[in-house]
Amino acid sequence: MTLYTKIRAAAFAAGIGLAAIAAPALADEQHFPLQSYRVGPYAAGGTGFFGGFIDYLNLINTRDGGVNGVKLTWSEAETQYEVERGVEAYERLKSNQGIAAWNPLSVGIAYAMIDRITQDKVPLITINHGRTDSTDGRVFPYVFPLLLNPYSETSGIVNYIASKEGGLESLKGKKIVVLYHGSPYGKETIPIYELLAEKYGFELQQIEVPHPGNEQQSQWLTIRRAKPDYVVLRGWGVMNPVALKTAAKTGFPVDHIIGNVWSNSEEDVIPAGDAAKGYTAITTQASGAEYPVVKEIVKTVYDAGKGNLEDKNRIGSVYHNLGIVNGILNVEAVRIAQEKFGKRTLTGDEVRWGFEHLQLDPARVEALGAKDLFHSINVTWDNHEGNGYVTFQQWDGKKWNVVSDWIAPDWALLRPIIEKSSEAYAAEKGIKLRTAEDAEAATN
Amino acid sequence: MAEFDWLFFTEVLIGGLLSGVMYSLVAIGFVLIYKTSGVLNFSQGALLLFAALTFVSLVEKGVPFAAAFAITFAAMVVIGVAIERTVLRPLTNKPPITLFMATLGLSYIIEGAAQLIWGTQVHGLDLGIEDIPFDVGGVFISQFDIFAAVVAASMVGALSAFFRYTRIGLGFRAVADDQFAALAVGLKLPWIWASVWAAAGLVALVAGLLWGARLGVQFSLSLVVLKALPVLVLGGFDSILGAIVGGLLVGASEKLAEVYIGDYFGGGIEGWFAYVVALAFLLIRPSGLFGQKLVERV
């Protein structure tokens, strides 16, 4: 060994030693990679939802020092709601340590990630959206359409219309038009509406609006000619205010339009102005800033200058509250998983176990400061939706007002349909159906 | 056999024609730029978004309507001049595809800048025009659409008069006909280009306000360019009259197609039907209905 080599080896060894001394012990952290969209056509929804999610994570860190001492961290990558960017963001962010779950808030990005996250064994959360049959945890162990899948949403809307008409039997002979966005998201509920129409005897017409939906004259003239009793608006983005404005323009009464869960935000009604007054839409979470958890976020996060929303007027808006509820569900899944696996950084598979035991009854929801913000959730290893309840809110020109009790979709009716679809998917992909025993084991 | 419902047909047709006027408003902005510089300005949609977003943000901050309009127009002039100085002038004599790509890049920059300055929130825009339909013999006609049609007609009239009777307008036409000849007689090309970009900015502002009142002022406004492209193919890229006629044809045909043959294709066809019409027309008459036929010696 030459002198030069010795010096170099010594320097290298010293370097390692110094690095070992200098580097802090790896802190217990749980990471949330966020494929957010803060610019582009759907930025209003993205900033609200991801803002609420981050605000809640911030609240847990600031108020509680994390979940049992495990700090929550997150990183963001912009997707502009585009699938290819979402996948690219996934590839970029997946190298983060201690990933708890993915929350892309995009049907397209979620679809593109299913095989990847299944291989990585990390949960994919598609709150209020996603593919309906991913509710079946036997086939989709890592996908969680929490609170509301599209079929439950459909059932909830039909049940609400029935309640206005005097019961499900009163639907016979009624006419319902579904105006849907011309995308996989919009078309997801076509078969279930057909099935419910057949079951309850109402006449059904489903009309597509081409993306992005900024022209709907012909669709609404067709609706006017059809003279339906109700129109269900299954829109997204600009399609929603244009639908409400065009309905007014063609003389269709706004109080007979029922919006779906992606047609229920302030961004959908404010641009429509007076045309939106009286419009009703389904939701899984109420809007407003009067709930204790939202007040705590204001006090602990915003008053400390750490709030994520630029415009404080949006605190308590539909998307912001959805983000907060999503934060609660993610954090509680981690907390539940920690009870079993230890108060440390968990693997994705361990967090999956946490989601599969995410049972928050109304008392626990109240303890979390979210009473009346959302109802409850009861996720199991084979039911990844968790039987979320829905409510309906009406726009008065300034704010949403809740106009119904919490309504349960017809889960018993929907489950066999979901299983039929998921089993077909499993057969196509050669997936072996998981059992309760399989689900109990988690990789660490 | 059920009797054909002529009343409904008339309603769809009128609705389509009035929608077509809205497309024309966007198309006119393209025509102005193309007429004088031969550039297909893809950033027209982004300019429209920027104008509407600036206007509505000023109004929401308490600036009176007229002042907000004037400030926004001034901003559009500044942007127009800046584009001419920093993008078009350095690219003079470059192939048309280079200029087109430059405007494509510009559209992303303007969209990004608009959201950076004014945020991503969706805004409502009330121009004070009631959008309650009135009944004409059983046919519902939108008051707002009639208002938009009147604005479009006034704008076409004003622009036509401007091109025909004013010194600057004649300068525009001279540049449109032959840039080298215009230079030879002493016309200042950069100044004319900057002026025409400012005029396109005004068109973008008016179109942005009308479309913004219809859709809400939000990012999707920039997507209305997709409605203008088939209009330009039909009417011709360099004819204001063509933009109007093209808009009417596109509006009426897509609405009638959606209602009467949409079901055969599973519905939702109006998004692409206009392009089918434009493509078919392109094969028959490449320069459009009113476009200038170019003959080149080789």
UniProtKB/TrEMBL annotation, chain A:
Q: Does the keyword Transferase apply?
A: no
Q: Which Pfam families match?
A: Peripla_BP_6
Q: In this protein, which residues make up the domain named Leucine-binding protein?
A: 38-397
Question: InterPro entries, per this entry?
Answer: Leu-bd, Peripla_BP_I
Q: Could you tell me the superkingdom of the organism this chain comes from?
A: Bacteria
State the signal peptide span: 1-27
**Membrane-spanning intervals of the chain:** none
- For the keyword Signal, the answer is yes
Record key words, sorted = Signal
Q: Which family does it belong to?
A: Belongs to the leucine-binding protein family.
Which PANTHER family does this UniProt record tie to the protein? Answer: BLR6548 PROTEIN (PTHR47235)
Q: What is this protein called?
A: ABC transporter substrate-binding protein
From TrEMBL, chain B:
Q: How does it sit in the membrane?
A: Multi-pass membrane protein
Superkingdom to which the source organism belongs = Bacteria
A Pfam family (short name) is BPD_transp_2
Where does the record place it? Cell membrane
**What keyword terms does UniProt attach to this protein?**
Amino-acid transport, Cell membrane, Membrane, Transmembrane, Transmembrane helix, Transport
Which organism is this entry from?
Shinella curvata
| InterPro entries reported for this sequence | ABC_transp_permease, BCAA_transport_permease
What CDD domains does its record include?
TM_PBP1_LivH_like
What residue ranges are annotated as transmembrane? 6-32, 39-59, 65-83, 95-118, 138-163, 191-211, 231-252, 264-284
Record protein name field? Branched-chain amino acid ABC transporter permease
User: Family, per the entry?
Assistant: Belongs to the binding-protein-dependent transport system permease family. LivHM subfamily.
